[in-house]
Write a structure and sequence with these properties.
Number of helices: 9
Shape: extended
Radius of gyration: 44 Å
Largest sheet: 2 strands, antiparallel
Oligomer: single chain
Helix content: over 70%
Order of helices and strands: HHHHHEEEEHHHH
Length: 334
């Protein structure tokens, strides 16, 4: 854009035009070229101002569009990397993983101000939506599994009723008695499986005790594990119980579901890593339960002590000088 020149005085322009019109010539101190430029200068300046405003507006729109595109790329990058966020691999490209570029490229920074707030909101909405989808999917799978188990139970019950019709009275009583025993085993397994107690599913009492580790200066001793059930004993119990709960032998309608629960518990307890993780979970739950019990006992004790002290104060105030001998006699009687 060319630099602005000074504006021509309006009186000079009018005088020049009057001279040209009257005498059909120009004898003004300024030339025709100067006159024409003075006439056109105002309109050119107005055009330049208008063009500058248009260019500035377009630049602002381009900057806003670039910012929105940057936010969209960041959002797409997080959405693409979200499924592999828990893998911890170096090729995931997440910040701090050590592999792959950071989000938005090497020369691109996170949006600031309103852009950063919008990006954080998009990320939170994405996590919330994925959590809702996972919960919804889990509930749908659980409902589907429950419906499938109920369908199998009804089918097995109908088959058992059909077999009863083919038996005589003595055989029918014997089959119903056996089915009642099978139902008790199945119900026990399913109840323990619902509570997440894998040892109880197999009918094993977990008496494991862990002591330590004990630290002496810079040395550690332990931990020591006592009464730990061996893996071979778990496998032996599983084989014996599997023969009882197998759907081909067990006549209860939910025998197949109980057999699957038995296999799941046995797979966890016979694998050392999975069993160790499960034992850690049990110990942490036990510590929380013991801590809650101790806090409850301490709270009840403090409340009882405060009530006792308050009662003694009221009794001393009411009885006056006879409070001490009466309290002593009462304590001796108790």
């Amino acid at each position: 854009m060319r630099p602005r020149r000074g504006r021509c005085p309006l009186a000079l322009v009018i005088f020049q035009l009057a001279v040209i019109i009257v005498f059909n010539t120009s004898f003004s101190p300024i030339s025709d070229e100067r006159l024409l430029y003075c006439l056109a200068d105002d309109s050119l300046e107005e055009d330049d101002d208008f063009l500058a405003e248009i260019l500035a507006e377009q630049a602002r729109e381009d900057e806003e569009l670039s910012r929105l595109e940057a936010e969209a790329r960041e959002f797409d990058a997080i959405k693409a990397r979200q499924p592999s966020a828990g893998s911890g691999g170096g090729a995931s490209g997440m910040p701090g993983s050590g592999g792959g570029p950071k989000m938005g490229g090497p020369n691109r920074a996170m949006p600031k101000g309103a852009g950063g707030a919008n990006f954080s909101k998009l990320e939170e909405d994405l996590k919330k939506k994925e959590k809702e989808n996972a919960s919804k999917k889990a509930s749908q799978e659980e409902e589907k599994a429950s419906q499938n188990a109920e369908r199998i139970r009804l089918k097995r019950e109908a088959a058992f009723e059909a077999e009863l019709k083919k038996m005589n009275d003595e055989q029918r009583k014997k089959a119903q008695k056996q089915k009642s025993k099978d139902a008790k085993v199945v119900n026990r397994i399913l109840k323990a499986h619902t509570s997440g107690k894998h040892y109880a599913v197999l009918g094993i009492r977990n008496l494991e005790i862990r002591l330590g580790p004990f630290y002496f200066f810079n040395f550690s001793l332990g931990p020591f594990v006592l009464f730990r059930t061996k893996t071979k004993d778990i496998k032996r119990v599983y084989r014996n119980l599997a023969r009882t709960v197998h759907p081909d032998k067990n006549k209860d309608g939910r025998a197949e579901e109980a057999f699957q629960a038995l296999e799941t518990s046995a797979a966890i307890l016979t694998d050392e890593k999975k069993r160790s993780d499960f034992d850690k979970k049990i110990r942490s739950a036990r510590r929380r339960r013991n801590k809650y019990a101790m806090e409850s006992v301490a709270g009840v004790s403090q409340l009882a002590w405060r009530r006792s002290v308050s009662t003694l104060r009221v009794a001393k105030r009411v009885l006056g000088p006879f409070s001490t001998p009466i309290l002593v006699v009462g304590a001796l009687i108790i």
